[in-house]
Design a protein that fits this description.
The structure holds 2 protein chains of 2 kinds.
Chain A (H helix, E strand, L loop, with lengths): L10 H16 L5 E2 L13 H10 L5 E6 L6 H13 L3 E2 L8 E5 L12 E5 L13 H9 L4 H14 L10 E3 L3 E3 L17 E6 L4 E5 L5 E3 L26 E5 L6 E5 L2 H9 L13
Parallel strand pairs in A: 2-3, 2-4, 4-5, 5-8
Antiparallel strand pairs in A: 1-9, 6-7, 6-10, 8-9, 11-12
Helix pairs in contact in A: 1-2
Chain B lengths: L7 H17 L9 H7 L1 H11 L4 H10 L4 H12 L17 E6 L25 H5 L20 H5 L28 H9 L3 H12 L7 E17 L4 E17 L12 E8 L3 H14 L16 H7 L2 H9 L6 H22 L2 H4 L1
Antiparallel strand pairs in B: 1-2, 2-3, 3-4
Helix pairs in contact in B: 2-4, 3-4, 3-5, 4-5, 8-10, 9-10
The chains are: A alpha/beta, B alpha+beta.
């Protein structure tokens, strides 16, 4: 594929995307419209993240791609391969070694550093979209900082269910100004949105880029008497014993028995390599 | 023991190999050539060029072959290729009045300068399967007449003199470019037309049909439908004048719509406009109807709340590459989100049960 430019996109397009990224970093949480390109993978499959990564990567970068926290899920494999072919960058599965990490639906468990960029794939960038389908209206609401509708929604959740019934894509307020959709990460990941690394969000089909600069205040929306709670399965990882990582539930057999395992495959593997064991890997496991 | 969904890379490679084999089909059957597709499936080629926004019959034919005849997949291939092409500049507006028409019909006048030219149309064929074609595809040459040499004026130009049709003043403003600027609402007519001409034929047809059935009905007549080739000219700065760089086949449709007049406009006929690559007349007529429906604000008409009047609704959902990508992405793993929903539902159920079960019974 060497007939294509470095990282597939032409330099002018990358410059246009970088401008949108810089604007996004200057106005944290604000959705910057950008002239998203058609990519050789389908809309809805990470084209926004891919364009942001393409505009961010340099030949010296080390790239990691995860989907659902895992490096070996099919679409993560496909995107990693795309950049191996078109940019020739080094790739890794180790969170610590990566300089640019593209992710879908998770924030890695390992603490990210100032030297890293986390690129999110975003399906629907507008946190107010399912309350108001019109872009013309939601843009107005953001510009007037009119977020009453969102609070009413959360309140109605509580009055109906006794709890806020949003478990992923949980809305946050960035830098005391914009309400932002953190992409469909589980709300367990929300506290990690305040981090040392740069966070860039790309929505290709919806033509929006937004960003959270390092050390930026990110607050998950809640009420004083119903504070935000980051939840996960009440279980340690069956393989590495981690109590602090987000878990996937895996069905083991026809009888429906379950096991719980870290969704972040690199985190789980590095813990096991360091000698940690879970209920199913311990020598004395029954 | 736990077996993770490993080996994604190998699985993908194998899937691709199988796909290639399926695409080829039975190897005892001759391989389909690009030229065969281009020449014998030309309306499919036209659709791929129109919705792919790239006029290149050979590439469109290749895309159809590669996509196993899935036209939306073929359009996707063309779009993805198109984005990699550098932009040298923009052509001058094509002059459809100078079109060498293969077909030109008007539903509003029995005859007009240039005449009614049926051209190669399905319109009056009886839709009976031609079993002879299964055995032998050869045809006798069609009779030929003398080609018209002079330009064929647009039908609407005859109405214009009388003032009964709304004037569309020429504009020297460069239109926006849908593929280079993000779509923002409210949009404008040039961008709407760009979105419609590359929009999904089925979607645009459905929207147009809805206006005919009464959802913002606008009483359209096909003032004129013409199909033919036009020259594409471009200004070359070094030369200081425009030169012809090629020609494209286009379908153009102008509808003439009844209009009772509004607060701002006197009673007169109004127009809808459709222009599509290739021979794509269903699409061109549909486009013209939807264009007209979307012009309600400019003409001072009432918003009837119909889908076809709703610019944001129509333009946000007309693109089949966006639509199919997002629709099909729900095949991707979502188990992280699903897991968090599972936890939530379990928690809510637990709490609900605690509320329902009386304390005494629980003891």
């Amino acid at each position: 594929m060497n007939e294509y430019n470095f990282a597939y996109l032409d330099e002018q397009t990358k410059r246009m995307i970088r401008r949108a990224i810089l604007k996004g970093l200057a106005v944290p949480g604000y959705q910057v419209p950008f002239a998203s390109r058609e990519m050789p993978m389908p809309y809805g499959w990470g084209t926004g993240g891919v364009q942001v990564s393409a505009a961010t990567l340099t030949p010296d970068d080390t790239f990691k791609v995860i989907d659902q926290g895992a490096d070996d899920t099919t679409n993560a494999v496909s995107i990693r391969k795309f950049f191996e072919n078109t940019a020739g960058v080094a790739t890794t599965e180790e969170t610590k070694k990566a300089t640019v990490i593209q992710t879908r639906h998770r924030i890695p468990e390992a603490k990210l550093t100032e030297d890293q960029i986390l690129v999110y794939q975003v399906p629907i960038p507008e946190p107010l979209r399912f309350l108001e389908p019109r872009e013309t209206e939601t843009r107005k609401m953001h510009s007037l900082e009119e977020y009453g509708l969102m609070h009413v929604k959360l309140y109605e959740d509580i009055s109906q269910h006794g709890a806020i019934s949003t478990s992923y894509s949980y809305p946050v307020k960035v830098s005391d100004r914009y309400v932002m959709d953190p992409s469909p990460i589980p709300k367990f990941d929300n506290p990690k949105l305040e981090m040392d690394a740069i966070q860039l969000f790309g929505a290709g089909r919806e033509q929006r880029i937004y960003a959270v600069p390092p050390h930026t205040k990110v607050v998950s929306l809640d009420f004083e008497d119903y504070p935000f709670e980051a939840s996960k399965a009440d279980h340690p990882c069956d393989l590495c014993g981690a109590e602090d990582s987000y878990l996937d539930e895996v069905i083991m057999d026809d009888a429906g028995s379950r096991m719980f395992v870290c969704s972040d495959t690199d985190y789980c593997r590095s813990r096991r390599e360091a000698g940690h064991q879970g209920p199913m890997t311990r020598e004395d496991a029954a | 023991m736990y077996v993770a969904v490993k080996g994604g890379e190998k699985a993908i490679e194998n899937a691709h190999a199988w796909l290639a084999e399926e695409r080829r089909g039975d190897t005892d059957i001759a391989d389909l050539s690009i030229a065969q597709i281009r020449e014998q499936l030309s309306l499919a080629v036209n659709r791929v060029m129109a919705e792919g926004s790239l006029y290149d019959p050979d590439l469109a034919a290749l895309a159809i072959k590669q996509a196993r005849g899935d036209l939306i997949e073929a359009i996707f291939l063309i779009r993805a290729y198109r984005t990699t092409l550098p932009r040298f500049g923009y052509s001058n507006p094509v002059k459809t009045g100078d079109m060498a028409c293969d077909r030109r019909v008007s539903a509003t006048f029995k005859d007009a300068p240039g005449g009614q030219v049926l051209g190669p149309t399905f319109d009056y064929t009886h839709r009976l399967l031609d079993f002879k074609l299964a055995a032998d595809g050869e045809v006798a040459p069609a009779p030929e007449g003398d080609a018209r040499q002079e330009p064929t004026p647009h039908i609407t130009s005859f109405l214009k003199g009388e003032g009964v049709i709304q004037d569309e003043p020429l504009s020297e403003d460069a239109p926006g470019d849908l593929t280079r600027e993000p779509m923002e609402f409210p949009s404008n007519r040039p961008l709407r037309l760009q979105a419609l001409t590359r929009g999904d034929e089925g979607f645009v047809l459905g929207m147009a049909y809805s206006t005919q059935r009464g959802y913002a009905r606008n009483h359209a007549f096909v003032g004129e439908l013409r199909i033919g080739k036009v020259a594409v000219e471009m200004d070359i700065p070094e030369l200081g004048f425009a030169i012809e760089i090629g020609e494209v086949e286009l379908t153009e449709c102008e509808t003439v719509n009844q209009f009772q007049g509004s607060k701002t406009e006197p009673p007169q006929f109004t127009r809808g406009y459709g222009l599509v690559f290739g021979q794509s007349e269903r699409k061109a007529i549909s486009m013209a109807l939807v264009d007209r429906a979307l012009r309600w604000k400019e003409l001072g008409e009432d918003n009837l709340g119909a889908a076809a009047q709703d610019e944001e609704f129509v333009l946000s959902h007309a693109d089949n590459i966006q639509a199919t990508g997002f629709l099909e992405h729900i095949k991707l793993p979502h188990y992280v989100d699903f897991q968090s929903e599972l936890e939530l539902v379990r928690k809510l159920r637990r709490e609900a049960e605690e509320r329902i079960t009386p304390k005494e019974a629980a003891e």
